[in-house]
Sequence to fold (107 residues):
Amino acid sequence: MALLMVMLLSLLVYGIAERRMRASLAEQKRTLPNQINQATAKPTLRWVFQLLHGIHCLKITTQHQTEQVIEGLTPLHQKILLLFGKQWKIYIKFLLRTPAQCKSQGI
Fold:
């Protein structure tokens, strides 16, 4: 029974995310490429996740400094991320903090 509830909750969250993404596409009058590279206004969330494949967060450490870099962020990736709102920029800024910045901010 508990597993059924977890599956139901997962599908609910997935459905809400897909609905929000499609509503954002319609609101901005934009489309995304589908599997055969044709524009679609109603892509599945699974396909959008596959389009986002290839973004990597690299942590580069030298002798005295640690830096994090987001690699592989193409204009299509940015377009998709903007569909989820501007909160993704806050998340990226959080990822790119250095350990010294985290320590000074008490994180």
Q: What stands out?
A: The beta strands are 32-33, 39-40, 56-61, 66-71.
